[in-house]
Design a protein that fits this description.
With 253 residues, this protein is α+β, with helices and mostly antiparallel strands. It is built from 4 helices and 10 strands; from the N terminus they run αβββββαββαββαβ. A 6-stranded mixed beta barrel has the order 1-5-2-4-3-6. Strands 8-9-7-10 form a 4-stranded antiparallel β-sheet.
């Protein structure tokens, strides 16, 4: 009986050690990894309002911060997602119309109205769980992903970096985000599934230091390539958390 008890205790100790080891390893994961939209996703949510209220979202519709919408990097436009605030148990259902957030560790940017529903306004960020509750009515069977490496106010600067990334990764494009002023997203490489996209992101980060997996949406405009020399980012701004939230386009170089 004593021997059996010791064996049982040893088994529990080994299982506990394995669990603690696994948790310790997870804490050291620095790079954001895009998840497949087939299951729940857990991470940090933030919210955005002005100055994007009244401007075109990435899917083309006008963003209204008082509607239940959100930005996600890879889910198809029109996907309905239930956002559960893990700190208070409150939930809200939002429709994906925009791309973002482009900040390490964050997985969704919700509208002002959605943030209010789950008590996100004050803290600005919270740990959440995302569950898909409805897919869009018509979604292309072709998935295409790229790595966003920056957003520029100056199209010429964006085009020069796009040309450099095209040489290194075989393809690159510009996607314009309308606003005052317009900004240009630089997307490097292409992948047809999320696993390949994550591997591509590792290669891109090794070259430029940062990058986020994003879905390439049908109708995203490209730009004419122009030969140029290398370009390094000149300015990088990420607004502080709280007091108005963050936006899906916080990176300006």
């Amino acid at each position: 009986m004593l021997f059996s008890s010791r064996i049982g205790a040893l088994a529990v100790a080994v299982a506990l050690a394995a669990a603690l080891s696994s948790c310790a390893k997870k804490k050291h994961v620095a790079s954001p990894v895009a998840r497949t939209p087939l299951g729940p996703e857990i991470g940090i949510a933030s919210w955005y309002g002005h100055p994007y209220h009244g401007r075109a979202a990435a899917d083309g519709e006008i963003y209204d911060m008082e509607k239940m919408t959100a930005a996600h990097r890879t889910l198809p436009f029109g996907t309905w997602v239930r956002v559960s605030n893990l700190s208070n148990g409150k939930t809200v259902d939002v429709r994906i119309i925009d791309r973002g957030p482009f900040v390490d560790g964050r997985i969704i940017d919700v509208s002002h109205a959605a943030a209010r529903a789950i008590d996100l306004i004050g803290p600005g960020i919270a740990q959440v769980r995302l569950d898909i509750i409805a897919a869009p009515a018509a979604t292309s069977t072709l998935e295409l992903y790229a790595i966003q490496i920056g957003v520029f106010k100056d199209r010429e600067r964006a085009a020069r970096l796009r040309d450099e990334m095209e040489q290194q990764f075989g393809s690159a494009r510009l996607v314009m985000r309308q606003g005052q002023p317009n900004v240009w997203r630089v997307l490097a490489g292409t992948a047809t599934n999320i696993d390949d996209a994550n591997r591509l992101a590792e290669r891109v980060r090794a070259q430029v230091g940062e990058g986020f997996v994003v879905r390439v949406d049908s109708g995203d405009p490209g730009a004419t390539s122009k030969p140029s020399g290398a370009l390094k980012p000149a300015y990088h701004h990420v607004p502080p958390v709280g007091g108005g939230g963050t936006t899906p386009f916080d990176y300006f170089f």
